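Backbones bend. We report:
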Amino acid sequence: MPNKEPFPDNHEHLEIIEVVQDEWKDAGPGSILTTRGVDPCIVIAIYNPGKGAVLGHFSDPMNTHLKKTVKSFDTLMDLLAMTPDDISQMIFWIGGGSSLHTEDDIYTEQIDANVDYMLEKIKQLGADENNIDFGLSGHYEEMEVQINSENGAITVGSARLPEDPTGNTL
C-alpha cells in the first residue's frame, strides 16, 4: 500500500514538479510531483521503490482523442509494460472525483467507468492487487495530490489559496 505518512519537515531539498491536466510526469528520487484541480478528473500515482514515481492527471482516460497524445494514460501503461520486472514491486494509487456527487450525477458514472478502465489496465500489466489503493474523494477543483518520489508518500488536500481577513484571495 502507498506510504501515507506526511512529508518530512525537511523536504525543502526536493524539486517540485507540476503536472497539469491530461499529462503525466515521472521523476527519480529527489522530487515531489504535484497536481491541482483534480475534480472530476482522475489521478494516478505510481511509486517504484528506489527508482522514483509517476503522477498522472487525466480528465477522461478512455477518450479516444486523448488516448493518442504522448502523455495519455494508455501511453503511460505502454511504457510500464516495457518494465515487466518492476511491475510487481510498483505501488499504485488512483484518486480523484468528488465526494459531493450524487448517485444520479453524470460525473459519478464517468468517474466509475474511468477508474474501472484504469484498474483493468493496471491489472493487465501484472500489478500486485495488494499494491493498488484508492482515494476517490475531493472537493471540486480545489483538490491537490502530491507524491514524494523518494519514499512514495502521497498527500491529498485542498489547493485552495488562503484568504486574507477581508475575504480576498492571497
The helical segments are 64-67, 73-81, 84-87, 106-125. The first strand starts at residue 15 and ends at 18. The first helix runs from residue 64 to 67.
